[in-house]
Design brief:
9-stranded mixed sheet; two-stranded antiparallel sheet; 13 strands; Stationary-phase Survival Protein Sure Homolog, Chain: A; alpha/beta
């Protein structure tokens, strides 16, 4: 059933990939309530690393877990993108003025943007032409302090509500631990994850593999990248385009004989 929200205030959709009980989203909800009415649509379970995955073989279920003046919060059995799709298609009576995904427990800088469920949700909002951004704190502890990340999220949210975003663009916001020196607009760091699996054995002596690894930074000295900004105490904001076409290569490809 659709819930009618006071149309005189900005309407903000909040989601994440760590699940509706994660401290990051709990902190973000309270921050966004300073700006307008909030609808939360978040995964029931941890969905990190789901990128833009959707559920195709199982039906989705949702229920309200919190309802107050200016706030309606749902949990959903699906992925972060499922949450956004379901909220916008079935549960909101008008398009939100802003979508905020997070606050993620852990960095989504560099190449991690393509794996991130946090950013998958923000990109999905962008596809629906909703001004959207994902925000992540570079700290994986479940009880991390999100105070400064919330301050950054508020500054970014206020600016987007004031200025908007170009069609087809969302923002990837990453925040270092502790108080930041400021917000730096950057590019995505070139690099990749290496040593990605730890091998061990189960109780029957069979091999099992656990995701792990470390980021191999190919441009450590580039002050215009998100990883440099984070390492030097700045929050990093990277504009992300949903059109993945390599437009500059099209003229060359047209010369090829396939």
């Amino acid at each position: 059933m659709k819930r009618v929200i006071n149309n005189r205030k900005p309407l903000i959709l909040v989601t994440n990939d760590d699940g509706y009980q994660a401290k990051g989203i709990v902190s973000l909800i309270e921050a966004m309530r300073e700006l307008g009415d909030v609808v939360v649509f978040a995964p029931e379970l941890h969905q990190s690393g789901m990128s833009s995955a959707i559920s195709t073989s199982q039906p989705l279920r949702s229920r309200i877990y919190r309802q107050e003046e200016g706030l309606t919060a749902y949990m959903c059995t699906g992925t972060p993108v499922d949450c956004v799709k379901l909220a916008l298609n079935k549960f909101m009576d008008r398009k939100p003025d802003l979508l905020v995904s997070g606050i993620n427990h852990g960095s989504n800088a560099g190449i991690s943007v393509i794996y991130s469920g946090t950013m998958g949700a923000a990109i999905e909002g962008c596809i629906f032409d909703v001004p959207s951004f994902g925000v992540s704190l570079c700290e994986y502890a479940h009880d991390a302090d999100f105070t400064h990340a919330c301050k950054v999220a508020l500054r970014v949210a206020k600016t987007i509500l004031d200025k908007g975003l170009p069609k087809g663009i969302c923002l990837n916001v990453n925040v270092p631990q502790g108080e930041t020196k400021g917000i730096k607009i950057t590019s995505q760091t070139h690099g990749k994850w290496v040593n990605e699996y730890f091998q061990s054995t189960d109780g029957n002596g069979r091999d099992v593999f656990w995701i792990t690894g470390n980021f191999e930074n190919w441009e450590e000295d580039n002050e215009n990248t998100d990883e440099w900004a984070l390492a030097n105490g700045y929050a990093a904001v990277v504009p992300v385009r949903i059109d993945m076409t390599a437009h500059d290569l099209i003229p060359e490809l047209k010369k090829w004989e396939f």
